[in-house]
Each structure stands twice: as C-alpha cells, then as structure tokens.
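Dear colleague,

Following up on Tuesday's group meeting, I ran the structure prediction for the two-component complex that the binding team flagged. I've pasted the input sequences exactly as they went in, so you can double-check that nothing got truncated or mislabelled along the way. The structure tokens for the whole assembly follow below. Feel free to forward this to whoever is handling the docking comparison.

Inputs:
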Amino acid sequence: VSGTGHEPGPGHPGDAGLAAGTDFPSLLEDSAEDLYENAPCGYLSTLLDGQIAKVNGTLLSWLGYARDELVGHRYFSDLLTIGGKLYHETHFAPLLSMQGHVGGVALELRTAGGARLPVLVNSVVKASPAGEPLLIRTTVIDARDRRAYEQELLRARQEADRERERLQLLVTTLQRSLLPPALPDVPGLEAAVHYHFASPDEVGGDFYDLFPLGQDRWGLFLGDVSGKGADAAAVTSLIRYTLRAAAAYDPGPGTVLGTLNDALREEYERDHGHFCTAIFGLLTPDGDGFTLTLAVGGHPLPLLIAADGAACYPPLPGGPLIGALHDAAFTAAVIRLAPGDTLLLYTDGLTEARTGAGRDRLGDEALLAFAASIAPTTAGAAVSAAIALLDGFGGGLDDDIAVLALGVPPPPGPAPG
Amino acid sequence: VASRSLPWVRETMPVMSGIGAAGRNNVVVAGRDDAPVVMLAHGFGCDQNMWRLIAPGLARDFRVVLFDHVGSGRSDLSAWQPGRYATLDGYADDVLRICHELELRDVAFVGHSVAAMIGVLAAIREPGRFSKLVLVGPSPRYVDDAGYRGGFSRADIDELLDSLDSNYLGWSAAMAPVIMGNPERPELAGELAASFCRTDPVIARAFARTTFLSDNRADLARVAVPTLVLQCARDVIAPAEVGAFVRAQIPGATLVTLSATGHCPQLSAPEETLAAIASFAGLGP
C-alpha cells in the first residue's frame, strides 16, 4: 500500500513511483551478504548444542567481540548473564526443541566489556529436507528502550499486586469483624457454619450470628444484604448491631425483625433503600431437645433434617423483604428440635448456585433431595456435606454463601444387653 | 525434533482420571502393566513432555509413569500452595502420594534436575518403595558454600529470579488463556506446545526459589537405594564437579558421564540417555 493516495516523489524510498528509471541495486548497494552483516538486528547461527557457527557484524559490534573470538569457540549461553543462562537451559532450549521456534523472549547479553545488553531473542531450528534438525538460527533485537518501558509496566503491575493484597487484607479483616470469630458453646446443641466468599476482593453480603441472651436463651440470625462491597459492609454492620440490641431488649423474633425493618428504613430512606433478607431465631432448651422460635423476612426457608431420615421445609410464615415496606409485620412460629434433628439455614447463594456443566441453578427441590440424601445427620456432617456439594459445582459459585446448621445430637445407642 | 512436535503422550497413552493425586499431578501411565515401573520426574522449567523422546522407548520394557509437578504443565494449579511447595519435601510428598495411589512398588525413579533431589527425599522417606534412583543432572545445592562449589553465587540466583520477572509480562499474557481457560473446552493438540514451558509467573518464581536455594547435601548420605548419576559433558546448571560430589556422597552410587551437552540430555541426546536409564533400571535388584 506504500504510496497509495500520496503524490509519488523522491524522498519516498520504496515508493512504487520511484521505480521508473531508477537502478535499485546500485542505489541500495545491497547484497544478501551486506543485508546479513549490517542488518538492523543481530544474527547468530549455532549448532544444536549452542556452539556459535556464524554471527553478523551488527551483533559483533554490539558485543564488542571479534568474529574469531566467538565462532567455533563460544556457546550461545556464554553470551548470556547467569540468570539468562539458567532461563535458557530450563525454558528456552527445551521449548525450542519442542516447537522448533521460540519468539520474543527477553534475555540480557553480556558484552565483552562486561556491560549488559537487554535484548529480545527469536530462534528457529533449521531442519534438513528430511526433517532432521541441523542448526539454530537466532535473531537478536536491541531492547534497551523497550526494556525500560517494560520495567515501568512491571513496576506498575507489582504495585497493583501489592495494592490488591492490601485490599484483600483489609477486606478479610473487615469481613472477620462482621462475623463471629467462633460460635458459642450451647450445651446440648451442636452448631456448625460455613461461609463461602465469592470474591477475595469484596466484603460478602451474607451474615450470621449465634449469641447468648442471658440464662438458657440464645439468639441466632442468618441473612443476606442486597449488594456487596463497602456499602454492604456498612449495612451489615448496622443490621448486626440492631439485631443484637433489639434481641437484648425483646427477643421475640417477630419484634426483632420489625425493629430491624424500621432501622433500615430510617437509616436509608433517602438513599434508595437498603434491603436484606434474614431469619431470626430464639433458642431455648426443652427437655432433651430445643424449642426454636423463628421469624422470616424475605429469606429462603430453612431445612429440617429429622432424626427419622425425613427432610422438609417446615411451614413457617414468610415475611416481607426487610427494609422494603413501612410498618412491615413479621410473624414467628415455633419448631422443636428433638434429638437427632438438624436444622439447616442458608442464604440463596446455595440454591442459586450453578450446578456445573448444565449451568442450571440448584433450586429448592434439589436442595431438599440433597437434605434427604444425608438424613439423618448432625450439624457438623450437614455442613461438611454442603461444602462437598459446593465444591462439586466448581466455578458455578458467583455469590456469597452462608450455611449454618443447628443439631441436637442423637441419643446414645441402646446399651449393650 | 522440531517439526515432529506433536505430543505423543496424548496419542498413545491413557490419561488417568482427574481425581486424587493422579489428577492433581496429571499422571500419565504407559507400557505394560506387569513390567517394572519407571517413574519420570521433570525438573524446574517445563513439564512431563521433557521425556517425550525417551518415554516411548522405555515403555517397551517398563511401565512408565509420568507426571507434572503441581504448578507445572497440566497439573491442577489450584492445588498449588506457597507453604506446601516452599521446600522440596512438598514435591517429594506428591511423588509418594502418586506411588501410594497407583500402588507402585519397586519403582525406578528418574529425576531430572531438581527432581533428582525430590527423588532423594522420597527415597529416604520410603526406601522400600524404590528399587533404583537415576539422577539426571542433579545438584544438591546450587549456591557455592565454604568448601563446596555449586556453580552459582547467591547474587547469580537473585539475577535468575529477576530474569523470571522480566519475562513476567510475556508470560502473563501468554498464560492467561491457560490459567483462566474453561476446563470443559476440548483441548487442542497445539495447546500442549503452548503450555509446555509456561506457568503462572508467581508459581514459577516460587519454584525457582525452592529449586535454587535448597540445600540437600546432608540428605545424600541417607540414600539407601542403588543410585546412578547421569552427568552431562557440558552442563552450566549442574557442572561435572557437582555430579562427582553427589556420587561420592551417596553410598555405592555410580556415575556415568554422557557425551550429551547442556542440561537436558533427554532432549539433546535421547538415545544415549534412554540406553543409560534402561540398562540401569533393568538390572536385577
């Protein structure tokens, strides 16, 4: 395309318009030999073991060697710095042997005077017509300017990596402050929890807690804030402290969720609203088991995995999304956890998880089938099974997932005899 | 060699299912099931395809077990943990896990470069598991020390780590499809060449540190398995005096100097290397 759209004229070497009456060979004084010797890049031919067999004038002048100092006496790797030699032996040469060519590898040559010359190296293996490799041809391109630019890019990249690490540390610390460091010991109850973080770069939007409410009473909650990141972290913080403070004042689960609904509306009314879904529960010992009073706000129903091997979603009254409606009411219901029963609370990241190849969501039905398949179980085993289920989804987890299991250990087996 | 670069292992060898140690280390098994086992372990830099010129020959007389170290080749990159692989013990542990999972016994272990010391560590932990050790271009310590010449100064090794960094950008760009690629996508033969010597730059740098800063000199005397040291004539990574040191330290070890040059005789002189390995591995116990 050279010359297209331009007036042909002198000063445009290579322009087709020059061809008429111009004697190219004499103008360019070119020969294959001259092109090789004085090319604007270094040329080097070596035997397969790296012994230098031919080298052009350009490379000799860059390196400051006389031709007979290299040809027949030195190996290509002799021209490299130590790091380059190791890289050459462990990466470059094996790759060249495998594919017959290697391109764009950054190396540094050592000049006769000891200086370093950053270069980009391309090599090809020249083979006989029968396919037998004969020698290695290498071009060497001066990369001083490019290397300086790359150093700058590398520095920026390293800085970005450091910043990301700092961010992840910050996120982890913040996340930890929003979740209980460990679940408290509730006599007669086994509790287990798992939190899957969708991204190490963002604070998750799921939350849970289990905490004492005076003598023989415990509160628990699990929920999911709309959004994620710093914004969601601030909301989660508000939710967590509101729930705990409200429960200390009046632990009725319906009242607690109502208080949270008011708090969210007051705090974020002008801010397009912030919503969450949550289950709040009040746990009290009841003979050999526990009574659990639960209220639900816009949250998926928990799963009851019973001692007799049955699994179901207990019929709890569902309440509205928390923070969405003025004066929302939440009705509590009571279920009993008998010995051998396990209740599994989870966020919708679990049912929304994409189940691998088919990319279907897991869904409520499949989760119920999963629960039936592990019944009867214990809290620890149920959480382990849920983790294994999630692991099986591979890359299908694009949301945070919290799973909290509460179980009453089964009675010891019948005494021998 | 160059033009015939199709990966033979994919064409002729069954690939283990992608679970357990076999999946983690991309284990490939070839040869007769009832033949003595030869396990081939690649060194720092590339993957099991380093053995592609001699493995088919070995498979005629042996059951050949190939694998990629975690972090290399087609291993499960998600299984790589900086702590576990900060010492060669983590790699030796993987070798033993593969042996256990495949129920390999009387294994002739062939370790190239850093994998030679990985084999030494594995053989010390379970001497009964191994019948022979073949150490190709071994070095128990690359950095010079008082009374010991490994061939490199600490500054040299730091320069290597820097040179890995200078290829960082190129690697990142070229590696992106491999690291982030969809595992369900059918693999193309050409991709193997593309992934052969490339790895996540963070993993490569860590493996380089583990490789070139390890000191396993004191372990050599504890090897109780018949050992052959294969030394190349001109090896800038593992010079002749290091090979001689290894032979002298391992009780009863023998040393064969190949006429091959460079650090990878299995590529530069496959016939000679194959013959040396096969004759030693084929000897009675």
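Residues 96 and 102 of chain A are 6 Å apart (CA to CA).

Cheers,
M.
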